[in-house]
Amino acid sequence: MPLSLTAVRRYPVKSCRGHDVDSAVVEPWGLAGDRRWALVDDDGVAVTARRHPRMVLITPEPADDGLLLRAPGAEPLAVPVPGPGPLTDVRVFSDTVGAVAAAPAAHAWFGEVLGAPVRLMYLDDPRRRPVDPAHGRDTDVVSFADGYPLLLTTQESLADLDARTGGAAPLSMTRFRPNLVIAGAPAWAEDGWRRVRVGDATFRVVKACDRCVLTAVDPETAETGPEPLRTLARHRRWDGKVWFGTNLVPDTPGAVLRVGDAVEVLETGPVAQPTGTPR
Prior knowledge:
InterPro entries: MoCF_Sase_C (IPR005302), MOCOS_middle (IPR005303), Pyrv_Knase-like_insert_dom_sf (IPR011037). Residues 124-266 form the MOSC domain. Pfam families: MOSC, MOSC_N. GO terms for molecular function: catalytic activity; molybdenum ion binding; pyridoxal phosphate binding. This is Molybdenum cofactor biosysynthesis protein. Strands 1, 2, 13, 14, 15, 16, 17, 18 and 20 form a nine-stranded mixed beta sheet that branches. The protein has a five-stranded antiparallel beta sheet with strand order 6-5-12-11-10. Strands 4-3-19 form a three-stranded antiparallel beta sheet, with no helix packed on it. The protein has two domains: 4-30 and 132-268, M1 Pyruvate Kinase, Domain 3; 35-127, no CATH class. The chain is built from three helices and 20 strands. By secondary structure, it is mainly β. It is 10% helix and 36% strand. Mean pLDDT is 95; it is low at 275-279. The relative contact order is 0.19. The protein is globular.
């Protein structure tokens, strides 16, 4: 079965709800419109659904001049892209990058929805934030994503994981927040990919993605549970972490991805043998 791109997904505000698109432009720091906004606390630390699970219920809808924010029990709010202004440091894990604050109404809206003081920040120039040099080149940059421009997952790996959980309800791919979903490969084949072509775009596969408690937050209800981390810990654990999906860095910015694009694995490499690797 040939490999194909079955879904393209963007997340306008880091850790809030994403949306599927039929096509998207690849930029050096990720898909156009992906994770250019983030919430921060009073210390300037990026806030995610790890800390506030209700963030997965907030829907940011892209507009020509900003975002339209929606959340259960809240009035919608239009937020324009902020104009040039002073930069405020935003800390994403070990990185610090300057960003511009949105209008005060946006801070108040998010604070009311989450029940905590937060501010909405816009990354006007993602070229300020390099990727981890251990897994990228000096010129590689990233938006407000955790560490790398894009995340790829495969339908077959999710199906294998789902079968191993033994749950009555299948796991949703949205728990893993990928940008690109691929079909047609054997389960976990992506562990060995090093370069891929998707349509006209080529990517380096720089690092497998270690997963955190955010995957245990149900994207439809914001409730937390033991899966998929419990099953990943039994079958996909090595280096003290659990793994699902893989991180990409684009080598052809400006290319357009379209659902249905053919996918070709250009280069493979050795596969780690974690405890409980599916065979």
